[in-house]
Design brief:
With 220 residues, the chain is of the alpha+beta class. It has helices spanning 2-20, 39-45, 68-74, 113-126, 191-209, and strands at 56-65, 86-97, 100-110, 139-141, 150-157, 164-172, 175-183.
Amino acid sequence: MAMRMHRWYAATAVALLLTGCGGAPESDSTTGKAAALTMEQVGQTLPDGEVMTGWKQSFQPTAVEMNRLYRSQACPIKGNAGCKNSRFFGAATFQRENPSASVTFQIVAYDSEQAAQSAYDVLWNGYYRNQASPVRQRAKPLKLGPIGDEHDARLGTAGFNGEPGAVTQTRVGTTLLWTMESAAHKGDIDEDSVRDLATMLAKRSQQAQNGNEPSAALND
């Protein structure tokens, strides 16, 4: 339990830190046009309470211009590798009561698709793949299906008593997206819920890159 709480305190701290500081047809696709997003678009891409059915917003979705402080949050590896040519960072956190769970969404928006693609393996292999469990052998890869231009996901146990944790990383065009989910009891996170959260965020990023206001909601 201590390890699980430590990891999710860190994710929540990101959201706390941030709070301090249409013409084209909409699409349900998670791939398509790649376009650099503005800070406003990053904020719109993050889900809010209206689209997160069954979840309560813990911290207001917030987007900020990338700087040294936020690079240390988004790219917490040597030299903040993976944040080169990043422009904006965004995060939002939600809680669910029954069954109890927490999820944090993160976005890093780059100035080009090539920059996002170059950062993908650096961040997944260097940090995020281990966030589903402090012990890699306790996390298993998940197949999310056709989501984004590339993606990875792991579901594991984040605490000593089998408390589950899950992390997904997805690249959609010029953005890297993460969902980081934690629950108090074994079985309170399943593959379908992990997939649904990642798919919604990917759809919203693609809608923004298409020039539309993001509208994808959970369980659409």
